[in-house]
Amino acid sequence: MMGDLVVEGTATSGSSTTLVDTNNLLFANDDDLNGFWLAIYEGTALGNERPIGDFTASSDTITVTDTFSATPDTTSDYIVTRRWRPQQYIDAVAAAVRRAQLFQLFPLDDLTGNFHEMITLGDILSTDGNANGQFEDISGTFPTGWTIDGNTTMTVDTGVDNVRRGRSSAKLTSDGSNLAQIRESVLHFDRYAGTSVTLRAKAQPDTSDRCLLRVGDGGVSTAVTDTHADGASVWQELAASLTLSDKPKGLDVDCEISAGGAVNARFDDVRLIWDAGTIYEYDLPARLVYLSKVEIEIGSASNASLREEAWETIPRRFWKVQHGASAKLVFLPEFYTPPRDRHIRLTGQAHPATITAATPATAWPETIEANAEYVKAYARWYLLNSLPYEMVNESIRRQIRDAQSVYLEMEDQLRVAVLPGAEIVRAA
Question: Which residues pair with 265 in a beta bridge?
Fold first, then answer.
């Protein structure tokens, strides 16, 4: 489309700075390819992109200005482009797909398989930026919001038998001799001074009596613990209750493996319940764009026989979305007092995971099928707009306007409808 591809082929030989192709580099004059771009997209020196400094017609040889990472050989497939670097094409397509994602919306509820994140009522780890007791928020392979000591390896586990709530759990591995630990330090801990809290979590170690929960108030009072005692590879709910000092120095939640031989232990559904007060405001998931329904589990979150998949809808007039630095779900005190230790389920819509310049995100399961004609139109506009000012003439301006007109018209057709009655959580 861009009229930019000069030649493509496979090297027949090469050196640290040259690529020879006696089959395709059949140009009549020396210097015919000078100033163009060479990119190797397959085989030896894969990914190398180099400016061409010289071309020798008699020997069908390209000389690049920077050395290759490896000597091109008969496995090295390449292209030569005139105006744009090959990486710019990759960036243009990625930009088009990112923009297309803004018009896609996925449903967010437990029934679709796209989203299994819960908020726990009365849970300090679900509000005020104290996040991720369900270990659903992931950066790469590591659950965000938790700190890890030097004796611990931590990964995300998504195996069907290795998760007790949502789509993932946190897997800890100790180093074989020392205490292993991950910690969440509660922000604004002073508001809980003099009150009692209960830390609950599901745990599954591969060795009996080696993993535990701990909650403390910064060393003012003795930290309270509960140790897994149900044997190896068995899920058990642990609970530890603490009354904070009137002048606490912190409020810390620890998931631990005791010192000794190496142990793997999974933790999930970690929640710190405020026993003495009611929490009305809860952090909403960062990806949520529209929220249309809020449901509550009928049973207590600590009573598995009652709570599993037993939901009732909280009337719409009982809650609202509060906008700010981070969006919050707010229950209105005049209509509703949230109970403690109950999970709530959100139904709404979110955009699919954003891709980087070249690599799709892997932390979320969705994929989208972007309209190919839309991607080409937007990528064409993107590339033409990247030209230096001195190269932009009236013909180029006309092409820019035409490409923009095409992709803007197609965007109306790409847009996914919002669920009826949904409230916006955050703008795209």
Answer: 172, 205
In angstroms, rounded to a whole number, what is the distance separating the alpha carbons of residues 366 and 115? 10
Rounded Cα distance, 80 and 92, in Å: 18
Structure tokens at 372: 């190919």
Task: Delineate the domains of the chain, giving CATH numbers in brackets.
Answer: 5-83 (2.40.30), 90-105+353-414 (no CATH), 106-114+281-350 (no CATH), 123-274 (2.60.120.260)
Q: What share of the chain is helix, strand, coil (3-state, %, to 5)?
A: 15, 35, 50
Contacts of 239 (CB under 8 A, 6+ apart): 198, 199, 200, 213, 226, 302
Q: In whole angstroms, what is the distance from residue 350 CA to residue 424 CA?
A: 10
Length of the chain in terms of residues written: 428
As to burial, measured by CB atoms within 10 angstroms (0-12 exposed, 13-18 middle, 19+ buried), residue 118 is buried
What pTM did the predictor assign? 0.72
Summarised one tens digit per residue, pLDDT across range 97-126 is 888 887 888 776 644 444 446 789 999 999
Query: What pLDDT digit, counting tens, does each position of 48-69 carry?
Result: 999 999 999 999 999 999 999 9
Q: Provide the 3-class DSSP secondary structure of residue 208.
A: coil
User: Encoding tokens for residue 309?
Assistant: 């998949």
Residues 425 and 348: their CA atoms lie apart, in Å, by: 10
